[in-house]
Specification:
Layout: H1 2-18, E1 23-24, H2 25-31, H3 33-36, H4 41-57, E2 63-66, E3 72-75, H5 90-102, H6 109-121, H7 149-158, E4 162-166, E5 175-187, E6 190-197, E7 202-207, E8 211-217, H8 229-239, E9 244-253, H9 258-263, E10 266-269, E11 274-282, H10 285-290, E12 296-300, H11 302-317
Antiparallel strand pairs: 1-3, 2-3, 4-5, 4-8, 5-6, 6-7, 9-11, 9-12, 10-11
Helix pairs in contact: 1-4, 5-6
């Protein structure tokens, strides 16, 4: 079935590109074998309209022209469907190659690979990669395991509001959130959605791993202005705990919590199997500390200690 449809679409595209004058439905039906085999006019009309929409979705510019007798005809002018030549230097080609590798684990892998093949067929250089040998051992990848990634990516692209159930780290049960999605950002190995929370009337950031159930699309337009990409990234960085304006004092079990040690501004070894660390304190630090479980004890400030205790109690009740 898939092969037959692909052949039918190809034949229709060739007919529309090869004609110098608009072709009517009747003429197209007589020129394409699959249309001749259609049972009746109604079946043909449905098949033709679907095929025409599919070709347009693939990027073919199809014009609809009415002649003097009032008959509708179709054609695809070659000048309207000719892309300008693509010219890339070696560094630009290498950057595109790296970008395609980044999406190997995502649904975009097929699209990225196909786009790269088309560019290479158009003359994009393959050899002379200036980064060759620098990324053979460590290759950039963005892991995408969350089921919410694809529907949210499409919603961000199409500017469609969404509804999903979200479980905060301090809550035992998820809550329904109505969001106008702005952008998806990968930060420190985790995916985040930045958007406008309609119920709270403010921007919010959601970690995709805490979205439960299906992401449902909603009709209607955005009610809040979408900020530029730089602002969104700064927002995600802040919510992910990267913007620190204070210091926190914690006790860390000896030999544990290397990521915390790497982030520490000061470390004092203790003789009781625990070390004292001073680490930057920003939004999201409480959620990060909870991940280390019994290996971490918060000494201060008091509000951070209280937040960590609340999160641990919520986990214990779940």
């Amino acid at each position: 079935m898939a092969i037959a449809k692909a052949e039918r679409l190809m034949n229709l595209a060739l007919c529309l590109l090869g004609t110098r004058r608009p072709l009517s439905k009747r003429e197209l039906r007589g020129s394409i074998e699959a249309y001749l085999e259609a049972g009746n006019d109604e079946s043909f009309n449905r098949m033709f309209e679907r095929d025409k929409d599919d070709l347009r979705e693939l990027g073919l510019v199809i014009e609809t022209v009415e002649n003097l007798e009032g008959e509708i005809g179709y054609l695809a002018r070659r000048d309207s469907n000719r892309l300008p030549p693509v010219s890339l230097d070696a560094e630009e080609a290498a950057a595109l190659g790296l970008a395609a590798k980044v999406w190997q684990q995502a649904r975009l892998a097929g699209a990225a690979s196909g786009a790269l093949q088309k560019l290479r067929a158009g003359g994009m250089p393959e050899a002379g990669d200036p980064y060759e040998g620098q990324h053979s051992a460590i290759e950039p990848r963005i892991p995408v395991h969350e089921a919410a990634f694809e529907p949210l990516m499409l919603a961000c692209r199409d500017r469609r509001p969404v509804v999903f159930d979200y479980r905060k780290s301090t809550a035992a049960r998820p809550e329904t959130r109505q969001v106008e999605p702005w952008a998806l950002e990968c930060w420190r190995g985790h995916w985040y959605l930045a958007g406008y929370d309609r119920d709270r009337g403010a921007e919010r950031v959601f970690r995709l791993s805490r979205i439960t159930g299906k992401v449902r699309s909603r009709a209607g337009r955005y009610t809040a202005e979408v900020p530029d990409v730089v602002t969104v990234r700064e927002t995600v960085a802040s919510w992910a705990g990267e913007s620190a304006d204070r210091s926190a004092l914690i006790r860390l079990r000896a030999g544990a919590g290397y990521p915390l040690r790497a982030k520490a501004t000061a470390v004092r070894e203790g003789g009781d199997g625990w070390d004292e660390l001073e680490i930057p304190y920003g939004h999201g630090l409480d959620a990060w500390l909870v991940e280390f479980g019994p290996d971490v004890v918060v000494v201060g400030p008091a509000d951070l200690r209280a937040d960590v205790v609340d999160r641990l109690r919520a986990v214990a009740k779940a």
